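User: Structure please.
Assistant: Input sequence and predicted structure:
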Amino acid sequence: MIILKQLPMFYEIQLYVKKLSLVHGLVFLFIKSLEQSFIIDSSIAPL
């Protein structure tokens, strides 16, 4: 009975972790692309 009650909570946590990892992946890709463009910009026009 206790396990049955904890199961939805576990499912919610799993869903939250999946969302978090998805957001983290998007942010990571965004930062990587920013770094890439920054490197290209600095190589074209060095400060």
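The mean pLDDT is 81.
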